[in-house]
Amino acid sequence: MLILTAAVYLAPLIAPYEFDAIDLKNVKEPPSKEPWMGTDDLGRDLFTRILYGGRISLSIGVFSGLGAWVFGSVWGAGSGACGGAGG
Prior knowledge:
Layout: H1 2-9, H2 11-14, H3 46-82
Helix pairs in contact: 1-3
């Protein structure tokens, strides 16, 4: 998990191509030595796009978890201070 997280956040250093680089000569290439996971309908490298997409997904997960933790802590502290189950 840690390796995947590091790879996703280091995508600009690891990715072999730009995530939005269109190459119409290499449309729908199968996985091979050069495009590791192949290319899409516009010739964009899928490995690169997965790395950059993972950055967004992990960021949303982390911030959602932190938001829930903060909200739950405040709600629980309020419940404890008021002596009830929700204020």
